[in-house]
Amino acid sequence: MVGVVAFMALAIWISGWEQNRLQKIIQQWPTTEATIEGGTYETVPRASRHDPMKAPVLSFSYCAGGEYYSGRIMLMQFFNDEGAAVIRRMILKKLEIRYDPKDSTRWFYDDNTLAGCIIRQEGMKPEDSRTF
Q: In degrees, to the nearest 5, what angle opens at C-alpha 34 toward C-alphas 32 and 40?
C-alpha cells in the first residue's frame, strides 16, 4: 500500500513539473490576434464524466508568419441562453492567442474564460489535442 501511495505521489509531482515546464515554454511563444468566425452547438465529452454534454464550440482564425490558421474553443459553462445565441454573440470577438513559432498550427489561449464563459481548448477530437 505504501508503494502505491509513493507511486501516486511521484506521478502527481511529475505531472505538475511537466505542466510548469510547458507553461514556461508557451509563455515564450509570440502572440497574435484571433477572430471568432462562427461555431456550432455540438455533443462533446465531459472532462471528468463519461456522459457527453451539448456545448457551443467556437471556430476562430489567426494569422502567423503571413499564413492563416484556425482553431476551436469549447465553452464549458456558458450563459443561460441557447447555444446558437451564445455563438451569435461571440462572432467577431477578438482573442489574443499564443502560437508555436516552429509549428504555427499549434496555439494556446492563455485565459480559462472567454466573455465570462469557462472554456476548454483541447480534447474535443483527437486532431484538436495540443501536445507539446
A: 155
Q: Please choose, from the candidates 68, 60, 16, the residue with its C-alpha nearest in 3D space to the C-alpha of residue 35.
A: 60
Cell triple for residue 92?
A: 467577431
- Cell 476551436 belongs to which residue? 72
Q: Do the Cβ atoms of 103 and 50 come closer than 8 Å?
A: no
CA distance 43 to 91: 20
Which residues are 107's β-sheet partners? 99
105-130 pLDDT, tens per residue?
988 887 777 777 777 775 334 344 44
Beta-carbon-side half-sphere exposure of residue 96 (alpha carbons within 13 Å): 6
